[in-house]
Amino acid sequence: MVRHEELYGAEPDGLWAAPGRVNLIGEHTDYNDGLVLPLALPHTTRAAVSRRAHRRLRLYSAQMPAAGPVDLDLDALTVGAVTGWAAYPAGVAWALREDGHDLGGLDILFDSDVPVGAGLSSSAALEVVTALALSDLFGLGLAPDALARVAQRAENDFAGVPSGILDQMASACCTAGHVLRLDTRDLGMRQVPFAMAREGLRLLVVDTGVRHAHAEGAYAGRRAECETGAAALGVPALRDVPYEGLDEALTRLPDETLRRRVRHVVTENHRVERVSALLDAGRAREIGPLLTAGHASLRDDFEVSCPELDLVVTTATSAGALGARMTGGGFGGSAIVLVDADATEATGKAVLDAFTGVGHHPPRVFEAIPSSGAQRLPM
Ligand code: ADP
Ligand code: MG
User: Fold this and answer.
1) Which of 139, 196, 261, 307 is the most buried (most CB within 10 A)?
2) So where are the chain's domains?
3) pLDDT for residue 157
4) Which tens digits make up the pLDDT trace of 150-167?
């Protein structure tokens, strides 16, 4: 791999890392002011960064070598001016400058082992690592939640990709050995211990390798339906529909599709509450059925799953997994599977066999170990 010094002719001033994530439960709740429960993966995006006298932002990613170093004028970062992968880190510099922070020239080399486009938030890892590096290098002192907000604005407003705050908050704020219980309304958060090893559990990630083309349009469509549902019920967001009052609320909605969308969001919030309560009580072993119920809700009510994700869930649960669900936005990407430690291999094999049995490309299976959020690394 190319070294920072070879590329830019100077040693980096520092090295930073930000992880990808999986969401244990709480899907499509983050743009409904709801609850989510992500954990950081051991997979990270790293940035080696040097401050330079030039007023340019030079970016290179080991994952996008063909794009070469992208060389941007720091003082001419405007919405729409940068396309492709560089829009994510450039968007971070743009958002910080919009907030009035004074940045200087920068040379950045990225490298990553977060699978790209697999629903594991490589985009958030890229943004958050940039935000943390810039905050440290220019003495901005931004707290993790502020880094996440800047990263989200980079993705939404500069790169033009609509997304909630879940991914960036997970990458910025998670801690090792925990899931992050996050209230996306006020960014209230609590680290909930997830002692899988002690309970003889493993959490597997199955990256299906599939990405269905209509994902982005469908995501925007679901968001719009949720807003319509909230307006029809006279609440600021669907998180304000109480679980206990769900049946009554559904009778006030004009059509069946809207009823199903609302039911997913409200029941999913409730599942987050129940999973985090079980984890608090040291009963991680019992969360499996809630994960699988969450998948059924995403598949049937929210309609964001796909045959490959369904295949992971049905195969894994038939093979004895405690629970399984898609994670991330859906229409491809990854699923998670909670298994007994000694069933790890058999479950992984059952999923691989099922995929090859129907002629799918074999998925990538690896373990999700709850890891640290963004941090500065020793050089
Ligand atoms: P996910 O965040 O689930 O991996 P996204 O579609 O949100 O999927 O983000 C993937 C995009 O983020 C890539 O197409 C690329 O533009 C950018 N990206 C992510 N990681 C890297 C990286 N290491 N180097 C360059 N670009 C990256
Ligand atoms: Mg992303």
Assistant:
1) 261
2) 4-193
3) 98
4) 999 999 999 999 989 999
Distance 171 CA to ligand 2 centre (A): 11
Q: Give the nearest ligand 1 atom to 115 CA.
A: 4
Measure the CA–CA gap between 355 and 75, rounded to whole angstroms: 50
Q: Return d(Cα 258, Cα 243) in angstroms, integer.
A: 16
Q: Is the distance from the beta carbon of residue 232 to the nearest atom of ligand 1 less than 6 Å?
A: no
Measured from the CA of 124, which atom of ligand 1 is nearest? 2
Mean pLDDT of 348-370: 96
Please report the pLDDT score of residue 1 as a whole number: 75
Contacts of 373 (CB under 8 A, 6+ apart): 18, 19, 40, 144, 170, 171, 172, 173, 174, 175
* Residue 167 annotated to the active site: yes
Q: What is the token pair recorded at 346?
A: 């058999």
Output the six-digit token pair for 121. 């938030």
Q: Is 64 in the pocket of ligand 1 (CB under 6 A)?
A: yes
Identify any residues that bridge with 308 across adjacent strands, giving them in sequence order. Answer: none
Q: How far apart are CA 112 and CA 127, in angstroms?
A: 12
Percent of the chain's residues with pLDDT above 90: 95
Q: Which atom of ligand 1 is nearest to the CA of 85?
A: 16
Q: Is the CB of 118 inside a 6 Å radius of any atom of ligand 1?
A: yes
User: Would you state the pLDDT for residue 66?
Assistant: 87
Mean pLDDT of 10-17: 97
The fold for domain 4-193 equals: Ribosomal Protein S5; domain 2 (3.30.230)
User: How much is the pTM?
Assistant: 0.96
